[in-house]
């Protein structure tokens, strides 16, 4: 189960890695798309690019508040 319920625009999302040689990814939620089980996000990643992200079990959110 992913730890991203209640995510809002401006929150920070962090994707933990399963391997030691891969870096942790993080970015800012710039749009919440869908609802409930179908909720996904437009993310601006730390390198500046944007993508649509469907959260998985390695995702966690830090509130912007």
Task: Please sum up the structure shown.
The protein has 65 residues and is mainly β.
Describe the structure.
The protein has one domain. 9% of the residues are buried. Strand 3 (40-45) and strand 4 form a beta hairpin. The protein has strands spanning 12-15, 25-33, 40-45, 50-53, 59-62. The chain contains no helices and five strands. The radius of gyration is 11 Å and the shape is globular. It is 0% helix and 42% strand. It is an all-beta fold. A five-stranded antiparallel β-sheet has the order 4-3-2-1-5, with no helix packed on it.
Q: Helices and strands, in N-to-C order?
A: EEEEE
| Silhouette | globular
DSSP strand (E) fraction? Answer: 35-45%
**Biggest β-sheet, characterized?**
5 strands, antiparallel
What does the average pLDDT come to?
A: 87
Report the total helices. Answer: 0
Structural class, judged by helices and strands? mainly beta
Helix content class: under 10%
Q: How many E-type strands?
A: 5
Distance between the termini: 23 Å
Radius of gyration: 11 Å
Task: Please list the strands of the largest sheet in the order they lie side by side.
Answer: 4-3-2-1-5
Count of the domains: 1
* Unreliable spans: none
